């Protein structure tokens, strides 16, 4: 199922023994374009403290009930390392957080979650990946994290190869892999009222300082693309039409080949 990041904001987090709080934001990486953490506002329970919850803890996304069910206890969350959401998340902080919950690191291996495609612990890496992890453990604290707030990136300008096409309005994520499948582009004054979807795989460059995303498409391609209706769920048939229109390979074909 694909779910809008904007819609995800406000979902309740349900631990095994009670409520944790509400989803406020997501942190995603700029390598695999995958959501690494949900930013959860604990409200009055922990005096407004914000915590990071990895998708590795998620067991169900209940869209109808607007909740995310996680395999954690309230005590585990309460004892988790503090995070300052106004500052970049360091690799050291990620290591401390993952170790607290007993989750493996995700940044070694060929797939979005290291040795596997989906965040379903316990992860059992292949021997080759396991050897690489052991060999590089000492480098963990030296690696830079490449995490970005989805809320911050909303509003980034989108540039085609021959000019501006609009700005990032939202993200659609796959609630199984937690990968961002589509950037929702608001074409603004160029094509008033039209929204289109662009795959992160078509992104050629992101200037985080200039708040701009460049995609390998022309303005004519975007103008003629099937329109995205925010009030309707994105079905596989619609995604298939998008890929056929752009002449690109779909993400599920790539996933099936990797399986």
Could you characterize the architecture of this molecule?
This protein is α+β, with helices and mostly antiparallel strands and 259 residues long. The chain has 2 domains: 2-148, SH3 type barrels; 154-258, Alpha-Beta Complex (Photosynthetic Reaction Center, Chain H, domain 2), CATH 3.90.50.10. It has 8 helices and 14 strands. The protein has helices at residues 5-8, 74-78, 91-101, 127-136, 150-153, 219-224, 236-246, 251-258, and strands at residues 2-4, 12-15, 18-29, 35-41, 50-53, 58-62, 67-70, 147-149, 157-160, 163-174, 180-186, 195-198, 203-207, 212-215. The strands form 2 sheets. Strands 1, 9, 10, 11, 12, 13 and 14 form a 7-stranded mixed sheet that branches. The longest helix is centred in the middle third of the chain and has 11 residues, at 91-101. It is globular. The protein starts with a strand and ends with a helix.
Which terms summarize this structure?
single chain; 259 residues; alpha+beta; SH3 type barrels; Photosynthetic Reaction Center, Chain H, domain 2; 2 domains; 7-stranded mixed beta sheet; 14 strands; 30% strand
Uncertain spans: 125-129
Number of domains: 2
At CATH level 3, the topology of the largest domain is SH3 type barrels
CATH architecture of the largest domain: Roll
- Give the overall average pLDDT: 89
The fraction of residues in strands falls at 25-35%
Q: What structural class results from the helix and strand content?
A: alpha+beta
- Kindly report how far apart the N and C termini lie: 19 Å
Largest sheet: 7 strands, mixed
Bulk shape: globular
């Amino acid at each position: 199922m694909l779910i809008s990041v904007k819609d995800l904001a406000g979902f309740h987090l349900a631990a095994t023994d009670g409520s944790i709080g509400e989803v406020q934001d997501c942190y995603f990486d700029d390598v695999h374009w995958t959501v690494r953490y949900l930013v959860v506002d604990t409200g009055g329970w922990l005096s407004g403290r914000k915590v990071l919850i990895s998708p590795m803890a998620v067991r169900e996304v209940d869209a109808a009930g607007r909740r995310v069910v996680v395999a954690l206890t309230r005590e585990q969350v309460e004892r988790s390392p503090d995070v300052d959401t106004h500052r970049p998340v360091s690799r050291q902080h990620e290591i401390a957080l993952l170790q607290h919950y007993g989750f493996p690191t995700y940044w070694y291996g060929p797939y979005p979650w290291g040795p596997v495609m989906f965040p379903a612990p316990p992860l059992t890496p292949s021997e080759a990946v396991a050897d690489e992890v052991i060999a590089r453990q000492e480098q963990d604290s030296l690696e830079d994290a490449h995490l970005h707030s989805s809320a911050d990136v909303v509003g980034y300008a989108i540039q085609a190869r021959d000019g501006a096409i609009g700005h990032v309005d939202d993200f659609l994520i796959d609630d199984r892999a937690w990968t961002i499948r589509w950037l929702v582009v608001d074409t603004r004054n160029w094509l008033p009222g039209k929204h289109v979807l662009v795959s992160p795989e078509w992104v050629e460059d992101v200037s985080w300082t200039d708040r701009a995303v460049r995609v390998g498409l022309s303005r004519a391609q975007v103008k003629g693309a099937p329109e995205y209706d925010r009030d309707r769920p994105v079905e596989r048939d619609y995604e298939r039409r998008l890929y056929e229109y752009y002449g690109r390979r779909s993400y599920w074909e790539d996933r099936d080949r990797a399986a």
